[in-house]
Amino acid sequence: MKIAVVPGDGIGKEVTPVAEEAVRHYLLDAEYIYAEVGYGRWERTGEAVTDEDIDLLKESDAVLFGAITTVPHPDYKSVILRIRKELDLYANLRPVSGPGFDIEIVRENTEGLYSGIEETGDGRSTTLRVVTRKGSERIAEFACERAKLRKKEIVIGNKANVLKSDVLFRDTCIKVAEENGIASKPMYIDALALDVLMHPKRYDVIVTTNIFGDILSDVCGFLTGGLGTLPSGNYGVKNALFEPVHGSAPDIAGRGIANPVAALRSAGMLLDYLGVDGAKNEIEESIQALLNKGISTPDLGGDIRTADFGEKVIAGIMR
User: Fold this and answer.
1) Catalytic one among 39, 159, 235, 299?
2) Contact 1/27 with Cβ under 8 angstroms?
3) Which residues form the Isopropylmalate dehydrogenase-like domain (predicted)?
């Protein structure tokens, strides 16, 4: 078994080793391969990610990913967007859970406003929002498969009252849900973003387009204490990549205070994907035991350092 480890930039280099240790606890005999990609490499070499890096990720059974700095430079292209497209990681799953609620946000991952089809000019810049029937069908199928494991219902986040492309997305999701015996409820994304914060217990599986899913899952960080707690998985037919929702946070990089909970939970999702029974729950239980005692990094009011928190999580798993 091959696991690719990509720390990336900023705090990615601090939280990824913590997550890797958790994976190694369960998969000691796996082969771990490493790729240096991101802004730091681009500054040094002029290349943020190469074809060889992409091939390495494709050959792995799963990818443990840190965080990437993306800068507004015309010659710098988003690394994670390229990886998602090259590996066809069309489904992004972002779980958000807390007291009395357990939500899964399913985000289409390769189309929408992140299509990469853009024109930049002095007086006008444009980004093409691409929504296809095929892309909508397969993300709806993914959401329905998740719903079958849970409450057999999905909410479809959209803006079909304004965006004609969302009419296609909404109607396709409704049709796929009907074919799968799943109840569906379309909601306009702005109203949904407010209501999910006010009444999180009402929601189970939410499916939406690329940028809406990106924003909505970040908004839901409010429910759990911040972005440092939220994991995600990117799934394709042949490959999968797991990463914390947060970015590279250059303002705190190198200080050893980054919250590794999101990275640890992403490691749990990776292990679950690889079929390691119980690992995801054990990691979560160990994390919760620490947080319930007030043991956390500074963003959650504690004073423990990144690596020390990781060590305590591993110790809890071993107990």
Assistant:
1) 159
2) yes
3) 2-313
Same domain membership, residue 201 and residue 302:
no
24 in the same domain as 47: yes
Catalytic residue among 55, 190, 277, 303: 190
Two structure tokens written together for 110: 């390769």
Does the annotation mark 159 as catalytic? yes
Which helix (H) or strand (E) segment holds residue 23: the answer is: helix 12-26
190 is catalytic: yes
306: pLDDT confidence band, cut at 50, 70 and 90? very high
- Residue of 26, 214, 235, 299 marked active site: 214
**pLDDT tens profile 83-118:** 999 999 999 999 999 999 999 999 999 999 988 888
The reply to whether 214 belongs to the active site is: yes
Residues 109, 173: one domain?
Answer: yes
User: In terms of residue numbers, what domain contains 197?
Assistant: 94-228
How many domains does the chain divide into? 2
Catalytic-labelled residue, pool 88, 204, 218, 308: 218
- pLDDT value of residue 75: 80
pLDDT digits (tens, 9 = 90+) for 192-212: 999 999 999 999 999 999 999
Are 85 and 194 part of one and the same domain? no
119-155 pLDDT per residue, tens: 888 899 999 999 999 999 999 999 999 999 999 999 9
DSSP 229-281: G-EEEEE-SS-EEEEESS---TTTTTSS----HHHHHHHHHHHHHTT-TTHHH
pLDDT at position 77 = 83
Which letter, b or e, does each residue of 240-249 get, where b requires 16 or more Cβ atoms within 10 Å of its Cβ? Answer: bbbbbbbbbb
Cβ atoms within 10 Å, residue 148: 13
- Please identify which of the residues 114, 166, 203, 280 carries the catalytic annotation: 114
Residues 116 and 194 in one domain: yes
> Is 203 a known active-site residue?
no
